[in-house]
Fold this sequence. Notes:
189 residues, mainly alpha, two-stranded antiparallel ribbon, 2% strand, globular
Amino acid sequence: MENYASKPIIFILLTLVSFIQFVFILRFLFEIMRVNFYNPVSQIIVKITDPILKPMRVIPLYIGRVDIIIILIATSITALKIYIPYSFSSFEFSLNTLVLISFGKFLDEALTILWWSVIIGAVGSWFMPYTKHPLFSLIDELCEPLYIPIRRILPATAGIDFSPIILLVFINLTQMILIPPIFHLARIL
């Protein structure tokens, strides 16, 4: 049962777990998009995630560029993030439901991070002299592989790049099409 003292504890735990989840999702996206790992921001993410990833990579599990270990860890952290608020109450759900919801939430948050990266990159491109920070080059490296197929299809326009807008629409459509069936399947279990 939730009481006065448990709310701050839940808040602190959720904040810590959310930060760890965010870092692992970034590591997942960095590896898929093959960003420059010599970027100072990438180095911070690698230094935070390596102590957990290295022991788990005794047996490498890759499908193409996708590191399954990172997906499993990020899904587990997401499950913890979902479970923490309910651990102080009498609400119960099955492990299958928790795993499916966690995987769906992991995908949803990874797509949301990509969405915000596109927004930050687009706004940052308006202020080119001020975008020498490593974070902006990292965002460009994260989004550029997604822009390339769109730019191949779109005709060249005079100074206006519509690929971020198309990518934002595509990310939203992917979230609308991919995530609800996962949550629906979790409800059925």
